[in-house]
Amino acid sequence: VAALLAGVNPYSITFPNPYGSAAYYGPGMVVDGRLTFGFVYPPLSLFLSTVGQWVGGDVRYAQLGAMTLAAAFMATTRPGRLGGLAAGLYLFTPRNLFVLEQSWTEPFIVLFLAATVWCAVRTPRLTPYTFGLYLADQQYAVLALPLALLLTRPPMRLRGLWGFSLRAVVVAAVVTLPLALMDLTGFLRAV
């Protein structure tokens, strides 16, 4: 976030090894105590964290907001008690405090997953766009692309699946490419 706010591409930076040991990294990834790659997540997490830094002076405010919004989506997806119980369980899981303290980016992926499910139930026409944000948030989210089959409206047809997937991928690309293309080599190495 500091690099982005200073006008420096976060995929072009290096930073101190937070573990003090090179045991967690492959050969050549740590040189003189510094990691040789930049920010390790796609830009959406960085953009959201920057909002937290800007609003409250700490990136954790964005993660706390994401946790709160995710719980709201969980609670209101369907009428009844089950959604509220799911939201409460999510919010009061003790490990969430550790995730927040460490400023991990998982609250964002939970937010976009909860938003996607909420949209699939409540406003299906928005589902490809929230799913696209889900895909753009973490590298491993692309593994969920086959789940688009569950999100398309019945009757499931190949044409509908392609249209849904295309909209989701376009959203992910629009969010990711502007910053990634500024240093494509650094982006690919870090992410």
Describe how the helices and strands are arranged.
Layout (H helix, E strand, L loop, with lengths): L1 H4 L9 E2 L13 E2 L2 E2 L7 H14 L3 H17 L4 H11 L3 H7 L4 H17 L4 H11 L10 H4 L6 H23 L3 H7 L1
Antiparallel strand pairs: 1-3, 2-3
Helix pairs in contact: 2-3, 3-4, 3-6, 6-7, 7-9
Low-confidence stretches: none
The helix-strand sequence is HEEEHHHHHHHHH
How many H/I helical runs?
10
**What is the averaged pLDDT score?**
92
End-to-end separation in angstroms reads 16 Å
- Rg for CA atoms: 18 Å
Sheet/helix structural class = mainly alpha
- How many beta-strand elements? 3
Shape: globular
**Helix fraction?**
55-70%
Largest sheet: 3 strands, antiparallel
Main β-sheet, spatial strand arrangement: 1-3-2
Strand content: under 5%
Write up this protein:
There is one protein chain. With 191 residues, this protein is mostly helical. Helices cover 60% and strands 3% of the residues. Strands 1-3-2 form a three-stranded antiparallel beta sheet, with no helix packed on it. A hairpin with a 2-residue loop joins strand 2 and strand 3 (34-35). The longest helix is centred in the C-terminal third of the chain and has 23 residues, at 158-180.
